[in-house]
Amino acid sequence: MIAEGSVILFLGFALLLALGTPLAVALGIAGSAVILIEGLGIMSVPTNAYNGIAKYPLLALPVFVLAGMMFERAGVALRIVRFASAVVGRRRGAQGIVAILVCMFLGGISGSGPADAAAVAMVMIPGMLRQGYPKEFSATLIAAAGSTAILIPPSVALIVYSVLVPAASVPALFAGGVIPGILAGLSLILPTLYFSWKNGWGQSDGEPTPRFWDSFREAIWGLLAPVIILGGLRTGIFTPTEAAVVAAFYGLIVGVFVYRTLSLRDIYRVLVESAEISAVVMIIISLAGVFAHAGSTLGAFDAFAAMLLGFTSSEAVMLAMITLMLLIAGMLLDAVSVYLVFLPILLPIMAIYKWDPVWFGIIMTMNMAIGQFTPPMAVNLMVTTRVAGITMESTVRWALWMVASMLGALILVTAFPSLAMWLPRTLGY
């Protein structure tokens, strides 16, 4: 029963994806087929579809998506770019560093890699082009830096992970992602400086450097957003779900009354687009509940985990195998989908090796961050190449350098768990 059902579940799911079936539909069909054929109770399908999304922490997900889009449309990115340019100054590699820093900061507002990359690409790529940066390099750099958004809190991906792994709370995951997220972003500065100095990129284009205090006054409302969100979480003023609501209303106030860049039509579009994005994610999570129920009831996930454990008894080798598997999966699927598909398999292994669920969640998320700018299905790179008007194939040579740099940060966090665990423990999570 287990062997036959496992073949139907995993190979059926893979075949549906290969045929171009939407992920949510592939998860639902594969799970339902196993439940029906193996007689596991077909009436469990609607129940598990509902239970998949009937979780309180998931309320934060659509609201953080809305908050991120509010800040993006309010013009926060442009003002933070000016402020970062005033801080970094005009020198070789400066604009590349500004792009990285702005992506990291906006990640602390949006929680979404593609949204982060899109906002920064539209503002930064024209200026970087004037200073000699090739479009291909600029698009790749921004896509890579934008991937830190799923590590630096508030992260939509980490919220989903906390729902699937209740032992890892949202505040602990948010705190755990800070240092690895910063390391991941800073690692990109090395190839940026190297190629800038080698090729002479970043010479002044004649535009004056923004004045520090003027740019600071313009950007202060955006700079306060992460302080309000994370400060409120730390002091216990509001929960993660309430923090999402506060962030959304703060973005609305900034866009309408402070910067005056959001009209009623803009607000309507933001509401519609954020609802569409959230609905897609929720449908995937819902139908993944059917897939997870079929696999766990059948025992397929435990069998798959036992197969992986049969390859080696070494913890280091097992981590390397899991990292390779997740890197490949991250090239093809988004972070939320990877969690939903692979966590049921990896949780038994995590329990056997007694890995901390917060640390393991950060490791998984760093793998997913790398996948967001690794071709062929790099979602961030799809966004930035479209903005730059280039093909994804032209970015491969630069993407390999960025992947190597961020892999270095991943190896550090894997080898030294305290990099992810120090802040949560210090804050008492």
From TrEMBL:
Membrane topology summary: Multi-pass membrane protein
Major place of residence: membrane
Keyword annotations: Cell inner membrane, Cell membrane, Membrane, Transmembrane, Transmembrane helix, Transport
Signal peptide: none
Domain TRAP C4-dicarboxylate transport system permease DctM subunit: 11-418
The keyword Membrane appears for this protein: yes
Origin: domain of life: Bacteria
Subcellular location: Cell inner membrane
Transmembrane segments: 7-37, 57-81, 93-111, 140-164, 170-197, 243-262, 274-296, 316-346, 358-378, 398-423
The protein's role, per its UniProt record: Part of the tripartite ATP-independent periplasmic (TRAP) transport system.
PANTHER family: C4-DICARBOXYLATE TRAP TRANSPORTER LARGE PERMEASE PROTEIN DCTM, SIALIC ACID TRAP TRANSPORTER PERMEASE PROTEIN SIAT-RELATED
Family statement: Belongs to the TRAP transporter large permease family.
Quaternary organization: The complex comprises the extracytoplasmic solute receptor protein and the two transmembrane proteins.
Protein's UniProt name: TRAP transporter large permease protein
Organism: Noviherbaspirillum aridicola
Taxonomic lineage of the native organism: Bacteria, Pseudomonadati, Pseudomonadota, Betaproteobacteria, Burkholderiales
